[in-house]
Amino acid sequence: MAKGRINVLEEYCKSCGLCVAACPVKVLRISEKINSRGHRPVEQFKEGCIGCAMCATSCPDAAIEVFKVVEG
């Protein structure tokens, strides 16, 4: 089973929420912290990311990097 994690480029995120809606395992949310542009960037708040990259694909600002690790 593949596992994944994301890295949000916080300064590019504008809190649109498209990635949160696109995540099939619901591990993303809008965070409480505020970036220098006045937006609350997305964060992965729990384990369970499957590395599908739906979040990154839906992000209009290319603010999400997805990393996938295959356990064997």
Automatic annotation (TrEMBL):
Xref: Pfam families: Fer4_7
Record key words, sorted: Iron, Iron-sulfur, Metal-binding
Domain of life the protein comes from: Bacteria
SUPFAM superfamilies according to UniProt: 4Fe-4S ferredoxins
InterPro entries on file: 4Fe4S_Fe-S-bd (IPR017896), 4Fe4S_Fe_S_CS (IPR017900)
PROSITE patterns attached to this UniProt entry: 4FE4S_FER_1, 4FE4S_FER_2
Domain 4Fe-4S ferredoxin-type, residue spans: 4-33, 40-69
PANTHER family membership: FERREDOXIN SUBUNIT OF PYRUVATE:FLAVODOXIN OXIDOREDUCTASE-RELATED, IRON-SULFUR-BINDING PROTEIN
Protein name in the entry: 4Fe-4S ferredoxin iron-sulfur binding domain protein
Organism per entry: Aminobacterium colombiense (strain DSM 12261 / ALA-1)
